[in-house]
Backbone:
């Protein structure tokens, strides 16, 4: 094996490999100098101790060089290094958000409930904590509804009526509850999801291509997924199983519950990326966008539909690992993978197995989707993640 920087990349040595190299070089130089070369390399001998210390320190430097090298590659960079690479093309990681809930306090009319009042309830163990975000006062009806957030970021659940304990005593307040379920927050965007978002964003700068149109649509924060196909011929034909008129593009977008204002933003995003002479086709939504010539141009698109795929992963673990060491990391990667699927994009077991292979401790992964090894949707269908089972 060739170590160091080569045309194939950077390959570091381990501490054991450095130790063997130092020992061999040292003995060779002793022999060349006419000195005894039968060195005592035991770990309780002076030369043995020194060689071990030296090899470990050099291996640390080698690992640092590897980390710096990896930080320049978006496929290997992690954490803040990946953030830096994404920032160069205008892509930012989505930070974690707090779950929110409305808490209803009961008590004496005129009693003040300050911001930061801590209450408890909900969550996996029934002890999630929630903080009021504003000051308010109990009214004449002896209750007041106050917005609150979870004490920690991420998805914290709370069913209606589960927040019932006041942790911070407040004079005049006798009870608390939450009339409605909490709106769950999001965990910090994973490295895998950020890489996929960066790849999609690089197509935004283009114009006229289906990739550029799709990227412009996905740049709208209310669009979860989209796919764009086109017929560049002067006659109608079937494209990926869908009949399209001549010289048109067809965007298929999810979710299908967007309001009129959001639909108009989609129409304008599609129009800005069109090539002259290409008609944006669709039968579900039709509107107009005003061009640079001042005239209105008809733009149409279709809604996508969804199918759900259960994911069943059977793992073989490396020695010393248990399922709890790897299952959450794998589920996070699977979730990020499904979150970035395109309408009409198939899901294959090899994709999930490759994600599993990137996790330390997983020696082998076998994936099924409720039985089959793939899920192949129609061109206008989006595959959503169902129940994930990892054993």
Residues:
């Amino acid at each position: 094996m060739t170590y160091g920087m080569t045309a194939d990349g950077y390959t570091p040595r381990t501490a054991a490999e450095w130790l063997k190299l130092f020992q061999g070089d040292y003995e060779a130089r002793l022999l060349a100098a006419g000195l005894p070369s039968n060195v005592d390399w035991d770990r309780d001998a002076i030369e043995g101790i020194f060689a071990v210390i030296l090899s470990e320190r050099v291996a640390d430097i080698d690992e640092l060089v590897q980390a710096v090298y990896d930080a320049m590659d978006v496929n290997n960079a992690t954490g803040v290094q990946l953030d830096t690479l994404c920032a160069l093309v205008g892509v930012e990681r989505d930070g974690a958000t707090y779950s929110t809930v409305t808490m209803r306090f009961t008590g004496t009319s005129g009693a003040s409930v300050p911001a930061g009042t801590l209450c408890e309830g909900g969550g996996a163990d029934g002890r999630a904590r929630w903080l009021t975000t504003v000051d308010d006062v109990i009214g004449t009806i002896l209750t007041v509804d106050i917005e609150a957030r979870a004490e920690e970021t991420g998805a914290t659940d709370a069913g209606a009526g589960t927040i019932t304990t006041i942790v911070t005593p407040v004079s005049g307040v006798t009870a608390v509850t939450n009339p409605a379920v909490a709106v769950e927050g999001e965990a910090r965007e994973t490295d895998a999801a950020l890489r996929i978002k960066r790849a999609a964003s690089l197509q935004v700068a283009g114009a006229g291509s289906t990739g550029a149109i799709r990227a412009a649509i996905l740049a709208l924060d209310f669009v979860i997924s989209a796919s764009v196909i086109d017929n560049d011929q002067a006659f109608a034909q079937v494209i990926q199983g869908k009949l399209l008129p001549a010289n048109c593009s067809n965007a298929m977008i999810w979710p299908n519950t967007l309001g009129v204002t959001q639909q108009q933003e989609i129409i304008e995003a599609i129009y800005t990326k069109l090539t002259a002479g290409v008609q944006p086709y669709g039968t579900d939504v039709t509107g107009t966008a005003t061009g640079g010539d001042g005239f209105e141009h008809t733009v149409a698109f279709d809604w996508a539909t969804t199918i759900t795929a259960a994911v069943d992963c059977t793992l073989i673990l490396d020695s010393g690992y248990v399922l709890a060491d790897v299952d959450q990391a794998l589920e996070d990667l699977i979730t990020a993978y499904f979150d970035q699927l395109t309408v009409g994009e198939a899901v294959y077991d090899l994709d999930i197995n490759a994600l599993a292979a990137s996790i330390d401790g997983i020696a082998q992964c076998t994936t099924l989707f409720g039985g089959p090894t793939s899920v192949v949707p129609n061109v206008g269908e989006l595959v959503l993640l169902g129940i994930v089972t990892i054993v």
Summary: Residues 98-177 form one domain. The chain has four domains: 4-70, 98-177, 203-303, 306-390.
